[in-house]
Amino acid sequence: MKMSSSKFLSCDGHFDFIMDMLVKQRSNKRYCDVTLVAEGQKYPAHRAILAASSNYFDTMFSSQMKEEFERVIKIKEVTKVAMEQVITFIYTNKVLLSEENIDEVLHAASLMQVQDLLALVIQFLSNEICPLNCLHYRQLGKLYSLNDLVLECDRCICENFDQVSTQQKFFEMDEVEMEKLISSDELVIESEEVVYECMVGWVKHHLQTRKQYFPTLFKHLRLQYVRLDYLSRNIKKEGLVREFLDCRDLVEDAFYFHVKPDLFEKQKPRKSCYPCKELIFIPNKQQNIASYNMTEKKWSSLQVVGESEQHVMFIGHDEMVYCFGYIYENGAYKTNISKRFNGIKWENLAPMVNRHSEAAVASIEGEIFVFGGLSDVQGNVVYFANTIIKYNPINNTWVKVGRPNSFQTKASAVGVGDVAYLCGGYEQGNGGQRNTTTVCAKVEVYDSVSKTWKAGNNMLEGRASCAVVHFDGKIFVFGGYGSNNTLLTSGEFMNIADGVWTMLTNNIPFQLGEVSACCVDDHIAMYGSSKPGHIALYNTNNGEWRTFVEEGQNLFNGRGCLMAK
């Protein structure tokens, strides 16, 4: 008879079944040969299972220690909360970690050398690191020699230095850690003044013992990036600075640098907490285009004139600003405006094939769509531009592609894939009196492929001349005018997936009037006609606002278009 061939076979789920049975045995105290005690709480277990899971227990049970022969073993350095999680993990491969128990479980896993559990604890800590806990987690990492965790915490501290440096635990760092941090090129800061203030605060926290370290720390400041007025008003008058000659010399050098920068070697700038280096604003009314430096918080003129006519339509597209419309003179629309600004100069484009003014404009799949708006105004009577036209930037051509769904002026639009969302505006009647006071909240959705319209869910607040942008699956709208020309400070967003609108928790810090906005990384920057020199920056991660104000420049006023550079 021929023998059959040999095969190794396995049963799926066998080990899971064995562990399930061991859990039941432990619950029923069957075959348990040891009891662990933590804070008076008893935990029956099997020596073999403990030894297989933990070097700590393996050594305890095999090295002639007294615990090898005892049936009840007290674990004095572990809490019952932690012991519960350790035993549960050993028997079930599951552990419940939280901010409340993580310190205790980490200590227990480290002490009892349960390496797989320790790896999960480290993973939990790494995933949960944030500005509010990074200093504490860093302490844990140093205590238990978790070098990778320390590095992750250091990265979080550097990236959120403005926020972290105000916390009480920050002042518990020793002088070596403080110098390493202050000297780092990786600090992401709003300004060098923040570094100076946290350094002074750290020294004064324990003045008698830390004053000796002040000159060493002070030399790491990048004083060339401190504002001149702050140098004079704050740093020069600080008692610690005046006490040390080396510090006074560095301050004097900083003053001289502001007068004769070419005589000094430029210090390396730290990383900016701002999402772009500068914002370009293209105004109307024959004013110069201006650049706002986010780090220096200053406007400067590019010496290029913006678009002169107030009623043109702006849109940012492919890192350029496009400008379309007609000049309204002596009661009639005249010259066709069609051009773009490439960051350096204006370029003339093919004229629109229809007359459109105060229309919604959107960028859809590389092309620019203009939706309706005004075709003419006679006195206070308005007439509908009952077409949609499309501009192709590659071949510089316009074509008609359809008709708008309704007659609005100063609605705002944004493209998402093949679709455009038109939001708000002033509803008008063709041949009727111009409406400039009553805004609508409706949203209309245009499909550029099927050339069809459908109604979207209304916004929570009616608005016209608002900013609208698409970011991370959401449509955001900001500011604009409410009914009776009320300046709005509210914002809201719609989840595209379900069409639900939600008001922003935090309002815009100031009224913006007619708003222009652009996305910059995970921020949204905006400028409004009612606040010359003011920039608002919205953080989409935490819903917080930052404002940048340059008073007294009077470079421009009114509406325009904002783009990041």
TrEMBL record:
GO CC annotation, single: cytoplasm
PROSITE patterns per the UniProt record, alphabetical: BTB
Any one GO MF annotation of this record: ubiquitin-like ligase-substrate adaptor activity
Alphabetized UniProt keyword annotations: Kelch repeat, Repeat
Superkingdom classification of source: Eukaryota
InterPro entries for the chain: BACK, Beta-prop_ATRN-MKLN-like, BTB-kelch_protein, BTB/POZ_dom, Kelch-typ_b-propeller, Kelch_1, SKP1/BTB/POZ_sf
GO biological process terms, semicolon-separated: proteasome-mediated ubiquitin-dependent protein catabolic process
Occurrences of domain BTB (ranges): 32-99
Pfam families: BACK, Beta-prop_ATRN-LZTR1, BTB
Name this protein carries in UniProt: Kelch-like protein 12
Organism: Ciona intestinalis
Name of the gene: LOC100175794
